[in-house]
Model the fold of this input.
Amino acid sequence: MMDNLLDPDLELRDLNINELRVMVSRNSESVLRRGRAMMELGRRASSDTALLQEVADMIRASENRRLITVGSTSVSQLGAAGLVAGGDERALALARELVEEWQSDEQSDFAWLMRSSGITWP
Amino acid sequence: MGIDRLDESDAPPASRDRDEQPTVASPSVPRDSVMTPETRNQKTYDAELRVAVEAEYRDAQRASGTDLPTLGQAWADREKKLLHADADPLRALGPAYETHPAELEAAMERLDGAGVEVDMRRDSMSYSPSAVAGHPGRLILDPEASYGAVLHEISHFSDDEAAGFPGLRYWLEDPTVTAAGESRAYQAEIDYANSIGATGIASQLEELKAKRISQLLGENDG
Done:
């Protein structure tokens, strides 16, 4: 079986939303875990519409756009990937809207991330 | 997928010994053994290198004991988009296509052979693993990147290749594994800087390495 970034993150599935929020925003946390928590929040926003706006704000935050996890993948990009992974149409539309707000290099990096995960983007 | 080669306008100038240089890229190989065997050009190169290293040293001396940034730091502040750690301080000594054309070409051929997508983009450098396991990733490289920066990114590619291209999730899961890779990548740059006597730049790279590893591990996590 191919391991895909968009597959569920089993290690984080037992954390509640507040624990994920704290993980994303905690400066002393590993940037890798902050990114994974951001992605998990994005994923959960598909089934929790109250979370959509909050996730959008976190993805828009300049700090999360600048915070690089691995390669060119920022915390915000992982959040947008989480919205895509969740599968809900509203979450997907939000992901498109947010990515369109980014600079062209960020859009290009996210498009590659999606393409390499097998998603046609945009 | 494939190498996005430099177009003619960005192409490196004809190298002094493009076909004669060894193709093994190693930070530990002394510069004299990998540069041109043509004495005249070697002397010119050595003189230029000495001037650049001395300028870098004077810059560090100028800034020491003051709040002034070194020129390298000022440059790093300006070039916010360099992803591997906001800086390529070895660029002060020249781009890889001038200092190590054969090694750069060998690196590009290796990436091409592995199926890595290469995106030549100003002010950015990174190697991103694929989102799906089993596939090589993508390298973003500034056309003006230094040889040290090339070594850094190739190190990340080598780690991904050695792990069997496990996918981005793998590299996100264990901070200690990713931090070890980052440490190796920076060490390749640092060893190269020290090998050419650019100890000031090596110190800058040590600082960048410590900062990035702290970010990867979490500030309270070792």
In short: The CA atoms of residues 65 and 146 of chain B lie 28 Å apart. The first strand of chain B starts at residue 117 and ends at 120.
